[in-house]
């Protein structure tokens, strides 16, 4: 038996600069093992104890995953040697023979399970099959392949693949429709242990192994496991401005800390709000190789009873009754889009799919949402799985102002059809600018196609109360609008209300302005400004009225997004008609300045400083600073006890960048009086 074939060594060419990781676009992963993408050949060398004789020697490879590998479930894969490789199917062929070694080109199936496989080489001998011993060195990760035409996540544009799969930083758009703000987010999908943490999420969600080659299933279970509701998932949400025993959502600068903490503690990380759920979800998708982008919808409707109508109920004075009003309009809401084919739907509904990890409503008994085809939402085909009616309502609801009469009936006072889903944006490909994608979700407001899409959605069972069954005559004589002056945190500003009397009548109005501090979800915390006034409106004329908001009125009450919501209601005394309007506004928050000193070379120490000047008239206490940059430094944290009014804080850090190229540093500052303070800096790290 001494002369049978015996495996001495296996070489996987798994270094970042070697052939496999280069060809498979996996050279950025900070992971020593072999990482390849499915449906694309990779190279392996096997050293035997003697030259291989194809006439008499017989050997094959085995890839195994999970505890109970079975061939029919795709968890035990024998790979036989053949003369040709068929595209998208498992196989191996010998490309080179020299002395005792052979080189193989191995093709994986374009629909195979995504995860970490164990590799064995089996040799047939007359005395039985001899397998190489178990070795974690030869473990191989197989990921989705957007570069492979047979893969369900194939994306044909190289620039888009570089952005949606390989870019490890992104932009979150927040603020509101009249004042769009942006901040950077570090996805860090290539950082150490992140790939394992992302694969662990599928274990946590108990997704059966055979489903892990299917991006639809992966998105569905991931949208549930990203939030902690009902399954102890990754992030616990908190929207009430108290973040005891946790990190305030606004303090996070990226996904890496959150995923690594969850991977080690197995307990939900506190706390997140929509952009945190979306940021971590994006890391998960890009890490596994599913093209993904983070999307922000301004004025997103959270419609509790999904009737495409957000009911704001007014009391006798024309104020919104917060106890009866259950629906809300979020200033903005972030979700994700993932790119894939939808073989479970009719042709034409593949491409971008909405997936949302923020827990808003349950779907099939769990807090999850998606994947829902963006194309289906645009055309009103909301009958197609999953959760399309909910997303349709988020971008298409009408705001209806109802007045509660003494006898309990509700009378429609006003309908606003264009407030919800006014603007939908994402980061542009290859740059930090904003790209509008509203057109992907809906036709032009008021167009014939938009009506048709709505009628289609209604036909497919989206509930909508028609306004015909209630007496509603809109009031056309007088137009009302109001503008909120842009203001910096800590200063006074004014609200200007304008009336335009288009009739030939002389009117008097009683107007009421209510200023509320709101969470970005549109839920009111409290009313800080009440102001009533009477106005005379001359025929065919416009008149304007200013209301001053003092800093002292709002500073003590402010929440972490510094957002206000103004309601103006006015009653025309002569006709009894009511005008109602609402707008959100966000204060300008000062930013952090990041600077670097000296030369920046990979492998050499460099220095970074973060500066901040306190804009408030009070001392800031217990201020936390965070700084991170994928490939440059791990997240650093520092606590400052106090920053007196108008004084400047300076924090200097030394770090050693790992990778050359264009990198981004992202910083955040957080304390109870001031949140959502960010800074960023693009830096070029030179090759040593």
Structure notes:
The chain is mostly beta strands and 688 residues long. The chain has four domains: 137 residues, Immunoglobulin-like; 296 residues, Transglutaminase-like (Coagulation Factor XIII, Chain A, domain 2); 109 residues, Immunoglobulin-like; 93 residues, Immunoglobulin-like, CATH 2.60.40.10. It has eleven helices and 39 strands. Strands 2, 4, 5, 8, 9 and 10 form a six-stranded mixed beta sheet that branches. Strands 21-18-17-15-24-25 form a six-stranded antiparallel beta sheet, sandwiched between helices. A four-stranded antiparallel beta sheet has the order 1-3-7-6. A hairpin with a 3-residue loop joins β35 and β36. The longest helix is centred in the middle third of the chain and has 15 residues. The protein is elongated, with a radius of gyration of 30 Å.
Largest sheet: 6 strands, mixed
CATH architecture of the largest domain: Alpha-Beta Complex
CATH superfamily of the largest domain: Transglutaminase-like
Measured on Cα atoms, how large is the radius of gyration?
Answer: 30 Å
Residue stretches low in confidence (pLDDT < 50, at least 5 long) are none
Number of domains: 4
How far apart are the first and last residues' alpha carbons, in Å? 53 Å
CATH topology of the largest domain: Coagulation Factor XIII, Chain A, domain 2
Number of strands: 39
The helical percent reads 10-25%
Domain Transglutaminase-like: 266-359
Active site: 274, 333, 356
Subunit structure: Tetramer of two A chains (F13A1) and two B (F13B) chains.
Subcellular location: Cytoplasm; Secreted
